[in-house]
Structure formats: C-alpha cells, structure tokens
Amino acid sequence: MPELPLEPLELRVLGVLLEKELSTPEYYPLTLNALVNGCNQSTNRDPVLQVDAAAVEAALDGLRDKRCAATVHAAGSRTLKYAQRLTEALNLSVQEAAILAELLLRGPQTAGELRSRCTRMYAFQDLVEVDAALSLLQEAEPAPLALRLPRAPGTKETRIAQLLGGPVEWHEPAAAAAPRFDRVEQLERQVEQLSAALAALRGEFDAFKGQF
C-alpha cells in the first residue's frame, strides 16, 4: 500500500504521471525531462511552478519510497522512465484516477469544473457519473482520498479536495469590503442616466424639427 501523506512536489509529480498516462498513453511512462516539463506546464496547473530536474528527481525518490511510483526500464532504451503505481495499489477506476489527477494538478474544484477539465483524460457523461466517482474517493479504504469542503459564502456549489497530501486546512474567506453601492443600485443609476440622456436627445431633435 502507498505510504501517505505526500509532499507538495510529490503531489505535482504524481498528478503529472496520472494525467499523462490517461491523456497521452503513447508517451507513457515518462522520462525525467517529460516530467519536468509536465510539472512546469503553464496550462491546466494551479499554481504554475518552475522546478528543475534535481527537484523532480528528489520527488520521484520520495514517491518510490512511498510506493506511489516506480522506475521502468524500457527494452532497447537507455533512458530511464517513470510510472505511477497508485491506481494499481488502490484499485482505482479510470474515472477516479482522472478526478484525482485533476485535483492534484489544480487544487480544490467543483464537480462541474472536474467534469469539464477531466475531458482530456476521461469524458464523463454527466454530473451523476462524476458524483459516483467522487463518492468512491470519499469512501476509499483504508482512508478517504478526497473530501468535500464546506460551501464558501456566496457560492452555490461545494468544492472537492484531494487528501493524498494529508488533512486539508480550510479557512472561510474573509468578507470583502462592502461596495458603496450594490449591483442593483448601480444598474438603476445607469438606467436613469441613459433615460435622461435619451430624453435630452429627443428634446434637441424636436427643437431641430421645429425650425422647419
């Protein structure tokens, strides 16, 4: 069984391994250089990182020690490649693996965001299928792999976080300073201004017509 929790860069490296296995299987397992590029990728990542090969190699050592990754010796190749071992160890479905990869790479997200962003790895038919996979991750044994966070003030949907890095520290966002006018009042003022401007234009047009 994998040994958890994982360190932050170990989480990113594992996320890249899971993502590339599902999205570009023809290039998987990955070389160290491919892993560095995947960790530093500017799209589908939050936060965007800039890490070097030495740091990624150290993270790989940690993942191997924790039985989450392994070195692969490809026949006829001198270049070492790396593969994840999490899905096999935990018997994860492709749906669970895709969601977990997305959470590892971009942090907490809503079910709707996960459905949209997982498309490159797995095309969920609907939110029912997403929720089913999320339930399996939340109920995983011997320990949950995901957690549904409390709904933040002003939002309609809850977000889901991965737990491979240990317990999630969630803080309720600080209330934003109250605006001088709320949105409705602003719109009402804009309508009044436009109405006044239109009335003035009509008055000028009527005066212009009166000259003929």
Description:
- The chain has 8 helices and 5 strands.
- By secondary structure, it is mostly helical.
- The protein has one domain: Arc Repressor Mutant, subunit A.
- Strands 1-3-2 form a 3-stranded antiparallel beta sheet. A two-stranded antiparallel sheet has the order 4-5.
- A hairpin with an 8-residue loop joins β2 and β3.
- α5 packs across α7.
- The longest helix is centred in the C-terminal third of the chain and has 27 residues.
- About 3% of the residues have low confidence.
Q: Beta-strand level of the residues, as a percent range?
A: 5-15%
At the fourth level of CATH, the homologous superfamily is Winged helix-like DNA-binding domain superfamily/Winged helix DNA-binding domain
| Strand line-up across the major sheet | 1-3-2
Average pLDDT across residues?
Answer: 89
What is the share of helical residues?
A: 40-55%
Distance between the termini: 93 Å
Q: Low-confidence parts, pLDDT < 50 over ≥5 residues? A: 175-181
Biggest sheet statistics = 3 strands, antiparallel
Count of DSSP strands? 5
- Overall, the morphology is elongated
What would CATH call the class?
Answer: Mainly Alpha
User: In the residues, how many domains can be counted?
Assistant: 1
* SSE succession: HEHHEEHHHHEEH
By secondary-structure content and strand pairing, the structural class works out as: mainly alpha
Radius of gyration: 26 Å
The third-level CATH topology is: Arc Repressor Mutant, subunit A
Tally of helical runs = 8
> In the CATH classification, which architecture applies?
Orthogonal Bundle
